[in-house]
From TrEMBL:
It comes from the Bacteria. The keyword Ribonucleoprotein does not apply. Residues 1-244 form the Pterin-binding domain. PROSITE patterns: PTERIN_BINDING (PS50972). GO terms for cellular component: cytosol. SUPFAM superfamilies: Dihydropteroate synthetase-like (SSF51717). InterPro entries: Dihydropteroate_synth-like_sf (IPR011005), Met_Synthase/Corrinoid (IPR050554), Pterin-binding_dom (IPR000489). One of its GO terms (biological process) is pteridine-containing compound metabolic process. GO terms for molecular function: methionine synthase activity. Keywords: Methyltransferase, Transferase. This is Pterin-binding domain-containing protein.
């Protein structure tokens, strides 16, 4: 499973302060730490709410690219900010996100120009559908719109939109069913999820996140947006892949053990 490090997010107070104060050391250390812990892509969110998102996102890209080689996920719906940041990215980018909501596909020209991968949210005009069937319908619509615009199927990562089980007891099973159906009905397309949403509002969130991630491995989730510094979470992911046939000969599991990446 592809691991996207979620920690460079300006909605978090420390990161927001670092962005506004141009604290490059803090951002570089955070980027390097995530990569050292196993992140393969780094999510960058520059939405401080009080700065210039375009300038802030460009600064984040420049700062992070100077210290790590990992590809980037640009987490923004601001077309001007995305356009400015994409111009300076040195590797293929994943853009987060498009959806079936009005106006959210205006980003298509940028995706075409820069050959980006993209996160596609399974939601439309009415918000997040209650059922997996309705979420998959939106996935079909987005798949056809995106591929018609030249985006490769393998570059489309559908987000089933995980809600908290605190407010919707079926949230976990709905997300898992959505992933399974997308994998079955849209061969070649991929799936991604922000796993920690499932535990919002509940105690011992890390316990719920770890358990849920292992369940998502079983239904074939391709990528996860997580705190890559959570060694126990990554250990559960690694073990889950070994136990569900996603890690041939358990090679990743044994390699991770030898390099001290796992904890029991």
């Amino acid at each position: 499973m592809l691991i996207v490090g979620e920690s460079i997010n300006a909605t978090l107070s420390q990161v927001k302060a670092a962005v506004l104060n141009r604290d490059a050391v803090f951002i570089r250390n955070l980027a390097q730490k995530q990569v050292d812990c196993g992140a393969e892509i780094l999510d960058l969110n520059a939405g401080t709410g009080s700065g210039d998102e375009g300038e802030d996102l460009v600064w984040l890209v420049e700062t992070v690219q100077n210290v790590v080689q990992a590809p980037l996920m640009l987490d923004s719906s601001n077309l001007d900010a995305l356009s400015a940041a994409l111009k300076i990215c040195t590797k293929k980018v994943m853009v987060n996100s498009v959806s079936g909501e009005p106006g959210r596909l205006e980003i298509l020209p940028l995706l075409q120009e820069y050959k980006c991968a993209v996160v596609a949210l399974c939601m439309g005009e009415g918000g997040i559908p209650k059922t997996s069937a309705d979420r998959v319908k939106i996935a079909h619509h987005l798949y056809h719109r995106l591929t018609a615009a030249g985006v490769a199927g393998a570059d489309i990562y559908f987000d089933p939109l995980i809600l908290s089980v605190c407010t919707d007891i079926e949230a976990g099973t709905t997300a898992m069913d959505t992933v399974a159906r997308i994998k079955a009905e849209l061969p070649g397309a991929r799936t991604i999820a922000a796993v920690s949403n499932v535990s919002f509002g509940l105690p011992l969130r890390k316990l719920l996140n770890r358990t849920f991630l292992s369940m998502m491995v079983r239904v074939g989730l391709d990528a996860c947006i997580i705190d890559a510094r959570d060694k126990a979470l990554l250990s559960v992911l690694c073990a889950g892949e070994a136990l569900t046939g996603h890690d041939k000969y358990c090679s990743k599991y044994t390699r991770s053990f030898r390099t001290g990446m796992l904890e029991g």
